[in-house]
Specification:
- The protein is an alpha/beta fold.
- It is built from six helices and six strands, in the order αβαβαββββααα.
- The strands form two sheets. It has a four-stranded mixed beta sheet, with helices on both faces.
Length: about 180
């Protein structure tokens, strides 16, 4: 029995090592959109999936998982195996910054951004491959043309720059909501 256990343990270690050495990606990728088809996140996700598919040479399937203001799709990715095969096309809630339209007598600029996220714990090598692929997608003329039809400006921010942008964007939203009196 001990020999069978040791043999099974060695076999599982060999399988795990083989899986770890497997080049990424080696199978289809699911790109989850936490909103219904046809919305902004979906309209950005589809050309993104097409571009990733061209670069990574694997199918990238867009899967809409709407509900609870995006929480259902987001949670499904957050709890997915962190292997780079389940990604999230996230859409900001409306971010605000006092500058253009009028809300409650105050000036506010609205803009929406999209970002690609992977579950926490996704290996660094996989994350690096995804960042490189997304940079190429954003620079692709076909992708630019697709988003130009949506009148969507394109800016690629790598992980550290996007993290900084994300944090600043959240802080702007908090400040504007405080200014219009919704957060005490």
């Amino acid at each position: 029995m001990v020999r069978a256990f040791i043999a099974a343990l060695l076999a599982s270690i060999a399988i795990a090592s083989a899986a770890a050495d497997e080049p990424y990606p080696s199978r289809p990728i699911t790109l989850v959109v936490a909103f219904p088809p046809g919305g902004v996140a979906d309209q950005v996700a589809r050309p993104t999936a097409h571009g990733l598919q061209k670069i990574l040479h694997q199918p990238v399937v867009v899967l809409n998982k709407p509900g609870a203001g995006g929480a259902i799709g987001s949670a499904s990715v957050a709890t997915a195996k962190p292997d780079g095969y389940t990604l999230l096309m996230a859409l900001s809630s409306i971010s605000t910054n006092p500058e253009s339209d009028r809300v409650a007598g105050r000036t506010v600029e609205y803009y929406i951004w999209s970002g690609l996220f992977a579950p926490a714990g996704t290996p660094d090598g996989v994350m690096q491959r995804l960042r490189e692929a997304m940079k190429q997608v954003v620079e692709d003329s076909e992708f630019k043309t697709s988003l130009a039809k949506l009148e969507t400006p394109i800016v690629y921010l790598d992980a550290p720059a996007f993290q900084k942008f994300f944090e600043q964007d959240a802080q702007r939203l908090i400040e504007v909501v405080r200014q219009i009196g919704k957060i005490e």
